[in-house]
Amino acid sequence: MLVDDHGRTATDLRVSLTDRCNLRCSYCMPPEGLDWLAKPELLTDEEIVRLVRVGVERLGITEVRFTGGEPLLRRGLPGIVAAAAALEPRPEISVTSNGIGLRRLAAPLAEAGLDRVNISLDTLDPGTFKTLTHRDRHADVLAGLAAAHDAGLRPVKVNAVLMRGVNEHEAVPLLRFCLDHGYRLRFIEQMPLDAQHGWTRTGMITAEEILGRLAEAFTLTPAPGAERGSAPAETFVLDGGPARVGVIGSVTRPFCGACDRVRLTADGQIRNCLFATEESDLRAALRGGATDDDLAARWRAAVRTKRAGHGIDDPGFLQPVRPMSAIGG
Length: 329
Ligand code: SAM
Ligand code: SF4
Description:
Structural class: alpha/beta
CATH architecture: Alpha-Beta Barrel
Strand content: 15-25%
Bound molecules: S-adenosylmethionine, iron/sulfur cluster
Distance between the termini: 23 Å
Helix content: 25-40%
Radius of gyration: 19 Å
CATH class: Alpha Beta
Largest sheet: 12 strands, mixed
Shape: globular
C-alpha cells in the first residue's frame, strides 16, 4: 500500500496524459499557452499503462482518473482506458475534461470501460466562455456534456470555478442548468496554481460566498450521513432533496487530513499534492530498466514523505513551479 508518515493511504491515482490544452482558462494558463513538454519527455501509452498496472496490482490503487491539460487530446486515450479496465482488481476509471471532443469520444470511451466523467463548465453564456477561455467553444462543451450523459457515463459531474467580476453571478443559473439536465454540479474554489501567478486571496470566491449565493435561491442542508471522508466536496441537499450540490473549498476548507490522492505527471513524476514542491522521477527508473518491484518500491518511498497539508496559509507558502495544467488537476 501507499502509506505516508501521517497515516494516510493513497488509493486514488490522478494521471496527467498531457500538459497541452485547447482552451486557455484564465485561472489556469495564459492566452498564449505555455512551453509544452517535448514528446520524448512524455510517457508513452505503454509506459502509462505499465505504471497504472503497478499502482493497481501492487500498491492498492482502486481509482484511476485521467486528466491533464486536456486528456481528450491524447490519441491513445481509449486504448489506455481499455488497458486500465482490464486490470485485476478492476479500478474505477474516470476522466476530467473540458468536454471538447466528447461528442465524438463519449461512446467509444464508455465502450472501452470508462465509468464516469467530470466536465468543466464555468458559464452558460457563450460570450463569457470566450472571455474566460479565450476560445469560442461553448457549444462544443454543451454537446460534450450531453454526449457523456447519453453514453451512460452517469452521473455526469460538472466542475465550475467562479471568478470575481466574470461569472460569479452564475452560481444559481449554473446549478439550475445542471439540475435540469441531470448533471451533478460541484463548485471549486480558485487555487493559486495558474501559470501567470494571478491568484489573490481577495479575488477568490470562497466556499462561504458560493453557499451564500446559492442560499438566495435554495434551502441548503448538509447531506445526511454524507461523511466528507476523503471526498473533497462538501455535499448539500437542495430544498429537501433529492437534488444536491457540492462545494470544494480546497483553500478555505482543506481536506488534506483525509487526502487519499497521488499524482503521476505526463512526464512520469510522482507528486503527492497539487501544491507539492518535490517530485519523484519514475520515468528515469522506468527507462533505466527498473523491474515492477523496483518501481513499486520507489513509488512507496515517494508517498511516505507526503506533507501533512497544502500550506497555502503558511507564511512561507510558495506556489509550485508547475502550473495546474502540467500537474494534472
Ligand atoms: N482540462 C480539463 C478540465 O478543464 O477539466 C482537465 C484539467 S483541469 C486542470 C482540471 C480541473 O481543474 C478543471 O475543473 C478546472 O476548472 C480546474 N482548475 C484549473 N485551474 C484551477 C485553479 N487555479 N483553481 C481551481 N481549479 C482549477
Ligand atoms: Fe485547459 Fe482545463 Fe486548464 Fe481550462 S482548466 S486551460 S480546459 S487544462
